[in-house]
Amino acid sequence: MKKVFVVSVLLLASLVMVTAAVAQKAVTLKIGINAEITGDIPKVGEATKFAAQMWLEDVNKAGGIEVGGKKYKVELAIEDNESKAESAAKAATKLITVDDVIAIVGPQASKQAVPAGEVCNNYKTPMITGWSTNPNTTKDRPYVFRACFLDDFQGPALSIFAKGEYKFTKAAVLYDVASDYPKGLAEFFKKDWEKKNGPGSVVAYESFTTKDTDFSSQLTKIINSGAEFLFTPQYYNEVPLIVQQAKQLGWKKPILGSDSWASDELVKLCGKDCNGFFFVSHYASAGAKGATKEFIDRYKSKFGYVPDDVAALTWDAIGLIGQAIKNAGTITGDVKKDREAVRKALANTKNFPGITGTISFPPGSGDPIKCANIVKINDKGEFEFYKTACP
Amino acid sequence: MSTPKDIQSTPRRFGRLWRFFQEVPLLGWLTGALAAVLAEQFVGLDLAHLVDLPKIPVLFGFENALKKPELIPGTVLYILMIYLAPTLLVGRLLQLPANRVAGFLARRWPVASVVFHLALLYAVLHIWSDINDYRVIVVKITLIAVMLTLSLNVINGYMGEFSCSHPGFMALGAYAGSVVTIVLFTNSSMYGPAVLPPAIGPYLFPVALFVGGCVAAVGALAVAIPSFRTRGDYLAIISLAFTFIVKSLIENLEIVGGPRGMRGQPDWSNLPVVFVCTVVCVAVINNFVRSTHGLALNAVRDNEMAAEAMTINTQRTKMIAFLFSAFWAGVAGVLFAHVLRYVNPGTFGLQQLAEVLAMMYFGGLNSIYGSIVGAVSINLMSEMLRPLEIWKWILIPLLLILVMIFRPTGLIAFRDFDPVRLIQPKGKERSKLEA
Question: Which of B68, B260, B392 to mutate to test the interface with A (most CBs of A within 10 A)?
Answer without folding.
Answer: B260
